[in-house]
């Protein structure tokens, strides 16, 4: 083949290679984009899910109200009969209104997932939705459809009246409703008094629903009893967690309470630990069991390897005989989204089980957690900000009547997050940008005998490599080795991190065995170098997003949107440079061709390489990217460090 043909072939190969690489990278970014943004802005909070009466589209981090509701459910008459109508009223206290609601009738004891019973009818001129699709069951051998009432608009509402008709005998029934005031304020599964089935046995006192116990008093905290509260200085109905204690010679009197964000089967637990981490701990749990509508205290212990919780059976077999010889007395309640337990327990817990810590030792860290329970047994908690157990900032001495507050921090986890933001948001993005779009820039300038783009690319990627290695070492020290999260997407975080680490280890090895530029193997090296670099760079962004959800880093939810803004900005910069490169390709090709021709005609003269077309735009985009990315990196590091 002629020299001219070889030159054209090389040019066409380079163009095809550049186009294919850019296309693959943009395609990967487009495919990953839905996982980063997770859809557009949510619509307003409104009612409701049939399974648990929870509002739909509520903002992340918003939970049902725990203070008493200003909205009540009332009805006329103490009982019901089949095919008779019962008038049901939704009442609001003076000055209050709700914009959305859902109302249904349920048999007792109520559990999440129970289906409604009976039929609702609208009165004249009422504009509400009677949902027939929440339940369809068999009553008395016949298939009967049940319904609930749901609002269809967002207008303020206060006093509403409906008609409910029983199409069978279901046992004793209670009405439940969810009231939505706004996106931040809603009460879930508020209940009425019982409407009785005359054919069912009369419920004995206090058996149909548990008596509420009085709120935990904080008046004498630090004086006559010891207290831990989160947040600091809160009163009990507003505390995320609260634990009080009074220590006597033979026993300790505890009060444990907390927010339970849901309707049924929730728990609040406190662990006594030597450190801020789960493992070899004694756990006291206040849990509600919807099967018998009781809130009780349970004992368990944690193991370090493998990390697990082991409940101690409270009752002997199916009987109500108590197996807890160390428990002197207890009472508990679950009302208005608050779990409370009061109990006296002997200090010699190891009498019951050797794995339990006696309440006679030195100071301990308190580990608090809350979440779902199954028949009084806590389910495994997650690792997000809302689910990760809260550890006390300092050790607590249960023999002292002191006032404690504050949550523990995890500096190694925060340092890992800060380093990864610096490595991948700043250094890696800038290094990849230089190698993709800035090779033709500054063709006649050198720094340390290297072209500007290569000098910048090499130093950015070397900084990224060093910082990433340090960050991985820190998180392995924090987690005491490889740690597997219980659920996706958090479970994917360490896996993606290891894949990224392998890619950035391979690339320096490839650089050591890199062939010369005129070697036939050089294109193969270029492809492998690009492939491993691109895989690491593309995977790094979703890995960072997943990492920000870990509770140890304590990143607020809104910080994610700052990083989303940067991702949008970075994609816009790459698209702009890609379009600009296509628009100036022909002009730069002609300049290059003319320069090569001049070199051939005057080989003994020095001919500087031609400056690329559109260099002002590319310089502007480079400085814009550096400035904006540096600002975002600084903001994110500050947020992670101080949150």
Would you spell out the secondary-structure blueprint of this structure?
Blueprint: H1 3-37, E1 71-75, E2 85-92, E3 100-107, E4 119-121, E5 128-139, E6 142-151, E7 160-165, E8 173-180, E9 186-195, E10 226-230, E11 241-247, E12 251-259, E13 266-273, E14 282-289, E15 294-303, E16 308-311, E17 327-335, E18 338-346, E19 365-374, E20 377-378, E21 390-391, E22 403-405, H2 411-437, E23 446-447, E24 450-451, H3 452-479, H4 492-512, H5 522-547, H6 559-601, H7 615-642
Helix pairs in contact: 1-5, 1-6, 2-3, 2-5, 2-7, 3-4, 4-5, 6-7
Sum this structure up briefly:
The protein is α+β, with helices and mostly antiparallel strands. It contains 7 helices and 24 strands. The strands form 5 sheets. Strands 13, 14, 15, 16, 19, 20 and 21 form a 7-stranded antiparallel β-sheet that branches. The protein has a 6-stranded mixed β-sheet with strand order 17-18-12-11-10-22, with no helix packed on it.
Key features of this structure:
7-stranded antiparallel β-sheet, 24 strands, alpha+beta, about 650 residues, 6-stranded mixed β-sheet
Computed CA radius of gyration, to the nearest angstrom: 33 Å
Q: Give the CA-CA distance, first to last residue.
A: 66 Å
Give the low-confidence spans. Answer: 1-24, 26-41
Oligomer: single chain
Tell me, briefly, the overall form. globular
Describe the structure.
- The structure is a single chain.
- It is globular, with a radius of gyration of 33 Å.
- With 643 residues, the chain is α+β, with helices and mostly antiparallel strands.
- Strand 8 (173-180) and strand 9 form a beta hairpin.
- Helix 1 (3-37) runs antiparallel to helix 6 (559-601), helix 2 (411-437) runs antiparallel to helix 3 (452-479) and helix 3 (452-479) packs across helix 4.
- The protein is built from seven helices and 24 strands.
